[in-house]
Every structure is written in C-alpha cells, then in structure tokens.
Specification:
Structural class: alpha+beta
Number of domains: 2
GO molecular function: acyltransferase activity, transferring groups other than amino-acyl groups
Distance between the termini: 33 Å
Strand order of the largest sheet: 1-2-3-4-5-12-6-11
CATH class of the largest domain: Alpha Beta
Largest sheet: 8 strands, mixed
Strand content: 25-35%
InterPro entries: Acyl-CoA_N-acyltransferase (IPR053225), Acyl_CoA_acyltransferase (IPR016181), GCN5-like_dom (IPR013653), GNAT_dom (IPR000182)
Oligomer: single chain
Shape: globular
Number of helices: 8
CATH architecture of the largest domain: 3-Layer(aba) Sandwich
Radius of gyration: 19 Å
Order of helices and strands: EHHEEEHEHEEHHEEEHEHE
Length: about 280
C-alpha cells in the first residue's frame, strides 16, 4: 500500500466529488464550477489536463487538483469542511507537490487561506503575492427576460482577430496570456457585442467555468452594453444548468454594482495566493 497521502481520483468519480462540494454551498461554488466544467469538456470529447487527488482517498478531506501550464504551476486546493487537519497533513507530507517551484493557488476560500498559513513553514514556502476577490454568483433556473440587444449591435462569439485588443486591456496580462485567451476563444468560450461589426464589449469563460475579463471599450461605456452582454452570456450558461460565477477586485465598484443590479448574490470572498520557496 502506498504511503502517499494524496490519492488519485479517477474522472469517473468527479461527479461524486462535485456533489460533496455542492453540500458545502456557497463556499464550495468554485470547486463545483471547476469540476462541472471539466466534466463537460470530457463529455464533449475534449481533453482535460486536470489531475485530482483526495487526502487519504476521502473526498470529505477535500481536493488537491493540479493544473500545470507552461507559465505556472497551479494547484487548486479546496476543502468542504472547517476541519482541514487531514488536508494539512497530506500537503505537508506529499511527494507529489514540488514546493520549490512557484505555486499559484486560485480562488482559495478562508478555510484554505488558514490552511496555507498553517503549513508554510513546514513546506518551506512564503507568500509572494495575494489577490483578494469578491465573489458574485447567479444560482437560478430563471432566465433574464428583459434583454434587448440595441439596434445595430450583434451578439456572437469572439474570434482571434481581436486577440491583441483583448489581451492588452486585461490588467493582469503576462507574457503568454494571449495564448490563454486564444485557447478560450478557440473553445468558443468568448462572447462579444459588435456595433457595426466593431467589437465594443466582451467577456470570456475560464476553464474553471467562471466569467473573465468583462470589458467595454472606453468610448462605448455607460450605455448599458456590459449589462446586456452579461445577461446574454448568463442565459446561455443557465440554459445549460450552470451556476454563473464572477470574481471582481474589492474596489471595482462599477462591476460590483452591475452584478448586484443583475441579480447576482455576493458570497464568501476568495483569494489567489502565489507562493515561492524560501
């Protein structure tokens, strides 16, 4: 029997894990969204790079999911319980995580933040950066019925023709972020409003199933375009039985007002944590 505390969870059991996190609502919303999106990809014949492990093979202990990319080492850490002791022990003793690498832990709720603070000395890492986000969700079966596309405006998927514009306006862009946006656009995970065939507003859906980079070109702001696009895209997701999730930085008051106005509910904040070896 293996001494490795993180036990691999086959894709056939991802639905069971999703159900565990659904019971930890709303804290478990990010974990649910990741699992739901990746399961949909697999059902459509697409590939998933996600590798999921559970501490000691027990889903109640949480999940550690590896989403390795060329530019960073992303590890999704989630726990459906306030008791994170077994997850902490597993993270301290696992041989699967290379803590000498720079590690990105996305959308960590407070119980995971507490856990990271607990284990940092044991795994010899320190916090490089943290980015807190407000979380807004739309969890309903009711579609928006008041959506009117303005005259001269069309709603359609993004194309790579506008890749440079999308990447250059993202405040968190990095050397290969254009490749990431290209990946999402090619998956048909990008949507835009076009005025006379000119892109004026857009949003994308991440591989974790969350909204990304809702943006309106400056000269077209304060005309309601972002609200129209948000509702159109949300309707597409809701028709598919999905929860709509949006993260925004705490001082982005305009985005927060838009989500509230559109019926989203603010739930537990999450944090992106970047760790580095001491």
């Amino acid at each position: 029997m293996s001494d490795e505390p993180l036990q691999f969870l086959p894709v056939e059991r991802w639905g069971d894990l999703q159900s565990v996190f659904r019971k930890d609502w709303t804290r478990g919303v990010s974990a649910c969204a990741v699992l739901d999106t990746q399961r949909r990809w697999l059902a459509q014949g697409m590939e998933s790079n996600l590798k999921i492990y559970c501490p000691y093979g027990d889903m109640q202990n949480g999940m550690v999911a590896f989403n390795e990319k060329d530019s960073y080492y992303e590890i999704i850490i989630q726990c459906p319980s306030d008791d994170t002791s077994k997850l902490a022990t597993a993270l301290k003793t696992t041989k699967l995580i290379d803590w000498k690498k720079s590690v990105k832990v996305p959308f960590a709720p407070q119980n995971v933040i507490n856990l990271i603070n607990e284990i940092m000395d044991d795994v010899n890492v320190e916090v490089e950066e943290v980015f807190p986000y407000d979380t807004h969700i739309l969890d309903t079966t009711e579609l928006y019925k008041d959506v009117k596309i303005p005259e001269g405006v069309t709603f359609k998927h993004l194309t790579t023709e506008h890749l440079n514009l999308i990447d250059s306006t993202w405040p968190y862009n990095y050397p290969s972020s254009d490749t990431y946006f290209e990946f999402l656009i090619n998956l048909k995970y990008g949507y835009g409003l076009y005025l006379n065939n000119t892109l004026i507003t857009w949003v994308l859906i991440t591989e974790a199933g969350t909204l990304l980079h809702l943006y309106t070109v400056e000269e077209h702001r304060r005309k309601g375009y972002a609200e129209v696009l948000l509702k159109l895209v949300s309707n597409d997701l809701l028709k598919d039985g999905r929860v709509v999730i949006a993260y925004c930085v705490p001082d982005n008051y305009n985005a927060s007002k838009l989500y509230t106005k559109s019926g989203f509910v603010a739930v537990e904040d999450v944090t992106w944590v970047y760790l580095r070896s001491k």
